[in-house]
Design brief:
The chain folds into two domains: 160 residues, NAD(P)-binding Rossmann-like Domain (Rossmann fold, 3-Layer(aba) Sandwich), CATH 3.40.50.720; 266 residues, N-(1-d-carboxylethyl)-l-norvaline Dehydrogenase, domain 2, CATH 1.10.1040.10. It contains 19 helices and nine strands. The protein has a six-stranded parallel β-sheet, with helices on both faces. The two termini are 38 Å apart.
Length: 441
């Protein structure tokens, strides 16, 4: 079996390298230099995309956008000119599910199969063979592609039988990944303005139900002096969040928090440049809040001019604010997933093994379809804490856009569901807003 790979950029190039030596590999890219690198590794470089299609049985793609996939497929000298019945196209692009379905249907008319298999986990995960692959398509296509995908990574998850389900899952995951990161950083910035050390804030968040991947990996890494770099462009995350919002619109799901996340990322791209890395979002939050989250003299730094004497009470409020954000981001993402037709069991399996993980997703997603109780915390208690956090943000001059909106949503929930209801009942608010039912999904 001969394998082809098209799209040898920062992610596709690393994924394709995993196939060198595992299969006879043919590559093609608009960037001739990127393709020549693979020639030196022993791969064959095709003159055109159509020529690659003629030579290969399975062709994998990793392009910036679905519009690029369409152009590659049906443009002059494109893949379709060389594809014949019986061949399989595997799209690893973080694309638009609905548009991918249209492309797959056009290929199916010619007897050509297509599935999608986007990835999550960054360049480091791709290079090490541990990146998460979210594959979807018919069982036959999945079985055929699985050995090739397994050569790229040991973590292959089938996310649905429909083409595009993998891409929808990737959008849901990235909404949680970016949303939980920005929400945590906004609240942490408030804590810093209160005079709390990053070490104390991180320890408080990670010792309870507020932790997420950003607090466990990024912030803890900074505290430990082992900060990691993701090597992922902020503009690409902006694209993914914009696509998740569009998916919500198609499914009739309000994307209140996703729109704030998109707005913050758009500010970042507009002010810092389209080539800036997603890691720089921390600097954006620092600038907006007028503080430093990371400081070499973190432990010795005194309070800011308007800071209170911060202590255990403030740490508790910060912890609850991050936990509240994780919770509602999980509900919003789950609402999109269910409305699109993804199974909650698949969402649970994928999210909690990928970058969208948080303590909230770990607690809620396994129980959401069966409506099991996961918390006894009352809505009124959470509303009270979030109101206090909001007041601190006003006093300290911290924007805290996500947590403030989360506080308003909790207030709406308390009015509609009763303040004595537990925070689990916020699921009912999201069901009402999205016109869905989590139970049985």
């Amino acid at each position: 079996m001969r394998v082809g790979y098209i799209g040898l950029g920062s992610m596709g190039g690393v994924l394709a390298r995993r196939l060198v030596g595992a299969y006879p590999l043919t590559v093609w890219d608009l960037n001739e230099g990127a393709a020549e690198t693979f020639k030196e590794l022993g791969a064959t470089v095709a003159p055109t995309a159509a020529d690659l299609a003629r030579e290969c049985d399975i062709i994998l793609l990793c392009l910036p956008r679905t519009s690029d996939v369409r152009k590659l497929m049906f443009g002059a000298g494109g893949l379709a000119e060389g594809l014949s019945a019986g061949k399989l196209v595997v799209d690893q692009t973080s694309g638009v599910p609905g548009e991918t379905v249209v492309i797959a249907n056009e290929l199916a008319e010619r007897g050509i199969a297509m599935m999608d298999a986007p990835v999550s986990g960054g360049v480091v995960g791709a290079a090490s063979g541990t990146i998460t692959i979210m594959a979807s398509g018919t069982q036959a296509d999945h079985d055929r592609a699985l050995p090739v995908l397994k050569a790229i990574s040991s973590n292959v998850f089938r996310c649905g039988a429909r083409v595009g389900d993998g891409q929808a899952m990737k959008l849901v995951n990235n909404l949680l990944s970016a949303g939980c990161r920005l929400a945590a950083l906004e609240v942490v910035a408030l804590g810093r303005k209160l005079g709390l050390s990053l070490a104390a804030i991180t320890d408080a968040i990670n010792s309870g139900p507020a932790c997420n991947r950003t607090t466990k990996v990024t912030l803890q890494g900074i505290v430990d002096g082992k900060a990691a770099v993701s090597n992922f462009a902020m503009a690409l995350m902006l694209k993914d969040i914009s696509q998740s919002i569009q998916l919500g619109k198609v499914c009739g799901v309000p994307t209140t928090l996703a729109n704030i996340v998109r707005g913050l990322l758009q500010i970042g791209v507009s002010t810092l440049g389209k080539d800036v890395q997603f890691d720089r979002v921390m600097g954006l939050i620092e600038s907006m809040a007028g503080t430093r989250i990371v400081d070499p003299a973190d432990a010795e730094e005194g309070p800011y001019p308007n800071a209170q004497v911060a202590g255990e009470k403030e740490l508790h409020l910060i912890q609850n604010a991050v936990a509240a954000c994780n919770l509602l981001l999980t509900y919003e993402a789950a609402s999109i997933a269910v409305a699109y037709g993804l199974k909650l069991s698949d969402v649970d399996m994928l999210i909690n093994k990928s970058t969208g993980w948080s303590a909230a997703s770990e607690r809620i997603l396994p129980s959401l379809s069966s409506a099991k109780t996961t918390s006894t915390v009352k809505l009124h208690a959470m509303v009270d804490d979030l109101m206090l956090v909001s007041q601190l943000a006003i006093e300290q001059g911290a924007p805290m856009l996500i947590a403030s909106t989360v506080g308003s949503l909790y207030e709406i929930g308390a009015h509609k569901l009763g303040p004595q209801a537990s925070i689990d009942s916020m699921a009912k608010l999201y069901e009402s807003m999205a016109g869905i039912a989590f139970e049985g999904a």
